[in-house]
Amino acid sequence: MMRPARTVAAIHDLSGVGRCALTVVLPVLSAMGAQVCPVPTAVLSAHTAFSGIAVRDLTDFLPAYLDHWRALGLRFDAVYAGYLGSPAQVEIVSDLLAEQEGALKVLDPVMGDDGRLYSGMAEEMPAKWRSLCAHADVVTPNMTEYALLSGEAYSLAPRTRAQAEKVLRNLLDMGAKSAVVTSLPLEDGLANAYMRREDGQMGVCAFERLDAHYPGTGDLFASVLTGALLRGEGLEDAVGRATDFTRLCVRRSMRFSTPVNYGVDLEPLLPRLWEKGAE
Fold it and tell me: CB 112: neighbour CB atoms within 10 A?
């Protein structure tokens, strides 16, 4: 007998062109058997790698949006937050996380890349995100976001195992129950590394470096991770599944010369995420 679909409140921006944020979150989690209830933080005609885009910030709309959900008495199996465009949005999301007791809380602190905050993002956002991490069951920064959260200098120099463990423990010290750092450079190559507070042991999911950089792959990784955790998979298996599917999508996109700005060519591969979804 099939169980009801798990529900996910997905708090991300929406770009009309370019696979990232909600245009990745919605198909991926749906393919994994979840009902996605989107909370758009901003609407963009295309993601920010395109020039001349039209943008509408939705900070002023979010309180009424979520108040209606509260009036409906909605409860979610998971709350999954990514791009937040302002300190006010962080406060709004913090309230929602506190209200959704018992929900899986996955936080992907989308703030920047290449060692810098995104253009136009408030300087206080790293501090705001640090406070939000106290609500997280899992936090999933990349190396730029880790540097912004921790205050450490951004560096892609290879880490020893002890240095990598310190990176993960620093995130757990912010209050998260588990931490996953994506594309962490280790002495023997790149890896997605993870640690749970309950045992303090680092796990590593190594992968080969590919000569491509597509926007939205962080959203893809965190979405598959969220879907796997909702299915009851452990953190190790969820990280492995997310790593494998992300690399599969990148490889396909390279093979078919998908224009980088349009993101990875994930749609033909979505049926692979349905494994175990009908249980």
Answer: 19
Burial class (CB in 10 A: 0-12, 13-18, 19+), 275: exposed
pLDDT in tens, 157-202: 999 999 999 999 999 999 999 999 999 999 999 999 999 999 999 9
d(CA 208, CA 190): 7
What gap in Å lies between CA 144 and CA 226, rounded to an integer?
21
In angstroms, the Cα distances linking 226 to 196, 208, 239 are 15, 23, 10
Q: Please state the pTM of the whole predicted model.
A: 0.96
Q: Are the C-beta atoms of 216 and 263 separated by less than 8 Å?
A: yes
Helix (H) or strand (E) holding 192, with range, is strand 189-196
The token pair at 38 is: 């989107």
Nearest to 10 by CA among 18, 28, 19, 159: 28
Residues in the chain: 279
CA separation for the pair 41, 183 (Å, rounded): 26
Terminus-to-terminus CA distance in the chain, angstroms? 7
Residue 213, H or E segment: none
The residues facing 81 across adjacent strands are 11, 107
Contacting residues for 95 by C-beta, under 8 A, at least 6 apart: none
